[in-house]
Amino acid sequence: MNWKNSCPSGSSPASRTGSCASSRRPASAQAPAAPAPIAPTKNTTSLPSCAGTWRLWHNERSTENRKHRHHRRRRRRVRRGVFAGEGTACDDDPDPCAVPMGACCRPDNTCYEIDATSCAQGGNVYYGDGSYCADTDCGAALPGDECSSAIVATLGANAFDTSNMTPSTPEPDEAMCAGTFLDWMGSPDAWLMFTADSSSTHTFTTCDGASYDTSMVLYEGDCNTQVACNGDSSGGSGCQAYYSAFNYNVTVGEVYYIRLGGWQGISGTGTLTIE
Ligand SMILES: [Ca+2]
Q1: What is the pTM of this model?
Q2: What is the pLDDT of residue 82?
């Protein structure tokens, strides 16, 4: 970014850290008839460069600032010490201090735009940074919630999240993997689809130390032809307890649907690895 152009009018860059110096007169004398500047906080020495720019900006525009509470809230966020990077300034475009936001659907299918952390409560569903409510149908099923909208998976690691999925029907045939504690029990499930790259034995596993007690089912060619399932596996390195895994001899060009659920209906985030 061009840091030279990031200073307020009438000021000039003082250093490469992004702070700015006035070329006209001290900032304290530059706001005629303005209320006294806000006293500096205790932690000024550790403020990021963005905050240094903020103090000058604030002194010059304190009266105006009082009229714009949302600006002040944003500056307070800066004071908590989120460093935006070397050479940044508060009036950069895009704002280096901005928190990424996206569409957040409430359980009643109303939508508002907020950051992911604030959205992640009360059954809300976050549609990703940069998503907009205008483009989001809160009443529509999430991608991968049903086999018909399965998410494309490839060789290697594929992230999935069943937290906001709904249970699909019918339930898997548990007899195919009896004794492995599939225990589907109305589990919220996510669907991924994989097109076989070769005719050979592939391993499908949910091994992921940060994941949950998954259950997994494999369908060949369509959403109903079940060919493998597993509740609990063991022996993998770095896996969570009770992850799921199976090997299957796939046919090149054939489409396989991987249905991911949880033991006795639990849900969460995980990783499907195909190799
Ligand atoms: Ca399991």
Answers
A1: 0.58
A2: 65
